[in-house]
Automatic annotation (TrEMBL):
Region feature Disordered, mapped onto this chain: 1-20
Single GO biological process annotation from the record: regulation of transcription by RNA polymerase II
UniProt cross-references to SUPFAM superfamilies, sorted A to Z: Cyclin-like
PANTHER family referenced in this protein's UniProt entry, alphabetically: CYCLIN (PTHR10026)
InterPro entries documented for this protein: Cyclin-like_sf, Cyclin/Ssn8
The name this protein goes by in its record: Cyclin N-terminal domain-containing protein
A GO MF term: cyclin-dependent protein serine/threonine kinase regulator activity
Amino acid sequence: MARNMRSEPPQGGSTLEPSLSTPAIHPSFIQVANPYIFEQTIENCIQVMSVNPLRETSLRLQGVAWIDSVRRALNLPIRTFDTADAAAAALFTACKIEDTLKKSRDILCAAYNLKLAPSEHLSADDPMFEANARGIIGLERLMLEASGFDFRTRHPQKTLMKLGRHYGLLQNSEVSNLAYRISSDLYRTFAPIKQNSSTMAFSCLELAGRLLDQRVEQVESGLDYAQWSTSRAEIMETLFDLLELYTHHRPQTAVGLEFPADRFLTVRIPLNQEASEHHIPRYHPWISQLHKPSNGTAINNQDVSQPAHPLTPIAANGDRQRTGERGRDAAVRFMLDPACADEERRQVAAYFKVEMEEYEVDG
């Protein structure tokens, strides 16, 4: 909380006005939707939640595979798969956002029937789906809140098709077909929440050309990057994300098994050399943070409280909320325009300044 001090040079004894008190925290928090976040923010979130990164990757890949299989069973378009990013509740929410409506029972029924023979399939009206269907609706509310009610979705497939036509690639060409399938594997990485559609489309097209040894020089030259609002550093980050996925989790991808494992290593070697020669960081941009090493024991008089979550909403007067404060007395309001949120914080902060005066007392 900002404190504004107005003082005059004292000539004798001075005292502070005893009636001053700190105003109560404004009972409102603002959460601004973040369509993109950085790699370090993702890592900080995982660290704060004390999640094992290997376990997180395993569960994420399982969830995406589940979404993809159910999406195919329900004949949903690829754009619904792009929007869904966490199992049944995410697929249910994505169906609403992309206007490909399906009931929660339909999703659960399709997932259940995937494990059975056609003669044993159940209907969506079966009572066994009732409890889980209600649970999905509850999780949907949490997902909408976590996303900041931001329904602005991005589909790299549309941009990918435009790029293919721009560079003279036929729609049924081998490179275009592979690039399209690579775009679905992007959602097994964190690239969709870090990069825009143009960056992802350029990355898929370049990687497809390198894997097939049919490289498109115009795509790799970078002459059109500015026109498509991207950069070489962002494309390189996305390429490395995909290559790491194919190197370590090849069987769980749509494209990985079509190539031998050493093919991805062969493709990565020249990219590593390019990154080294041009000093391109692995993640762009990256803000280094100093972490003190610890041997597992707490140091005396050291604050070991849990750090604030990187995506925690902040109060309308600019203060970060205290642990457990949200949901108790405070309302959380969601905004899509950061400038509007900043302006409101600026106006509200004026009412939370504590002004103090020093004055003389004749003794």
